[in-house]
Amino acid sequence: MKKLLMILFLIIFATSADILASEKATDPDPEDGAMGVTDDYAIYMYWTPSESALSHDVYVGADYNDVNDATTESAEFILNTARPQYAFIDYADGTEYFWRIDTVTDSTTVKGDVWTFITWAFPNTDLNDDSFVDIHDFKILVYDWLDDLLGNSDINKDKIVNFKDYSILLDNWYEGDKYYFDSVGGNDNNAGTSPDQAWQSLSKFNNTTFFPRDKIYFKAGSQYNGQITPKGSGSAKVPITIDAYGDITDANDKPRFDGNGTGTTLYIHHVEYWQINNLQLTNYGATAGDWRTA
C-alpha cells in the first residue's frame, strides 16, 4: 500500500511539474546568452507565452540572484503586461543583464526561467590606454592569450581571448596618416596621401594641423623658401615625424628649406614631440642679422 501511494505521489508530482513547465514563457529574444545586443532606441525583448497566460510579470536586472529571487515588490520587477514583449530603454552598454518572465494565469503565477544577454559596447582596443591602437596593444593581447588571461584583452567580453579579439583589434589599428610634399610635381588640390597625389606648397604644410603618429614626407630634391611652422603636437610615445622620401644618397638632395633671413627657418612654437629627419635648413639673408638661426 505504501509503495502504491509513493508511486501515485511521484506520478502526481511529475505531472504537476510538467504542467508548470508548460505554463512557462519560452523562446526568449534576445536568445539566452546572446552577446552584442543593441538597438537605436531600446532593446526589444520578446517571448512566447503559454496558452493559458493572461499576462506576464517582467523582471530585469544586472545580477542573476537578484532577478531569480525577485518578487513584485523588488526593484527588478518592471511591469505586468498582457503583451509578450517589453522595450528595455534604460540599459547600459557592455553590461550583462538577466531577465525573467513569470506567467500569470487565472489560478496562479508560474515563475519563469532566468535568461541573460550582454549589450553591445564600443570595443575598447586601446589596451594600454595611450589613446592609440598599435603594436603595444597587440603585445598585451598576445601575452594574455598565451597566458590564458582575460583583463582588457577580452575585447568582445566572451570570457576568452582568441582570434575574435585579435580581429577586432586589427579593425581598430591606427598607424597614423601619411602626407607627401613635392615642390615640383605636387599640387595643393591633391589628396596629399600618396607620392603621386603629393601636395606642393610650404603654405599647405604650415596651415595643416597634424596629429600623433602622423608622418610627413618631403620629396628628395624639393626646395622651399620661407619659414616652416609645424602645427599640432605628438606625444612622448607617438611623435609626429617629418622625413624625406626618394633618393637622398647625396646629402645635397635632401629637401631644402631656405629661410631667406627670417628669424628662424624652422619655427617650433607651442607644439611638442616632433621628430624631424633628413632636411636641409638654411637661413641666408641679403645682409648680416642678429640671432638668425636655421
Separate helix tally:
5
The CA-CA distance between the termini, in Å, is: 111 Å
Shape: rod-shaped
Look at the structure and give the mean pLDDT: 87
The structural class is alpha/beta
Please compute the radius of gyration using only Cα atoms.
33 Å
Question: How many E strands?
Answer: 16
Order of helices and strands: HEEEEHEEEEEHHEHEEEEEE
- Taking pLDDT < 50 over at least 5 consecutive residues as the criterion, the unreliable ranges are 8-18
Q: Could you give a short account of the major beta sheet? A: 6 strands, mixed
Provide the β-strand percentage band. 25-35%
Proportion in helices: 10-25%
Protein architecture, described:
The protein is an alpha/beta fold. Helix content is 18%, strand content 25%. It has five helices and 16 strands. It has helices at residues 2-23, 64-69, 135-146, 163-171, 202-206; strands spanning 26-29, 34-37, 43-48, 55-61, 77-81, 85-88, 96-104, 109-110, 114-119, 178-181, 215-219, 223-225, 240-245, 256-258, 274-276, 280-282. Strands 2, 4, 5, 7, 8 and 9 form a six-stranded mixed β-sheet that branches. It has a four-stranded parallel β-sheet with strand order 10-11-13-15, with no helix packed on it. It has a three-stranded antiparallel β-sheet with strand order 1-3-6, with no helix packed on it. The chain is rod-shaped, with a radius of gyration of 33 Å. The termini are far apart. Mean pLDDT is 87; it is low at 8-18.
